[in-house]
Amino acid sequence: MIDFEYEITNNCCIVTKYIGNDIVINIPSEIAKKTVSGIGWNAFSGCSDIVSITISDNVSFIGYYAFENCTSLKSITIPKSVSIIGSDAFIGCKSLERIIFKGRTKLDGIELYQDNDGEWKGGCNAEIIFEP
Q: Could you report the per-residue pLDDT of 86-96, keeping only the tens digit for each?
């Protein structure tokens, strides 16, 4: 069973909603034999039991409010392929401790939409970690 609702656009897959019950999530590189290229707006919004998320290397964007109110989320790993992160992607993630950027030494090359205070924190106060 696939734990995601999704849309096929331009021969790629965009995750639009998480419908599973796991607390450790690996967003796959393919769904329905299509490359997963993005995580849509509010796709994981309100998934309050998720503790950890790892995003596959094919994903290029994370939509606005994608992980809003994932109140148990402690860690998310974002691959180098991600070039756009929507504003407040992690707003309400009060347990989020770490946002790990794999294959990067800084945030250059990512289009980040700033939070209301003019800084990018993804809507939370998590530590940003770079793993080259």
A: 888 898 999 99
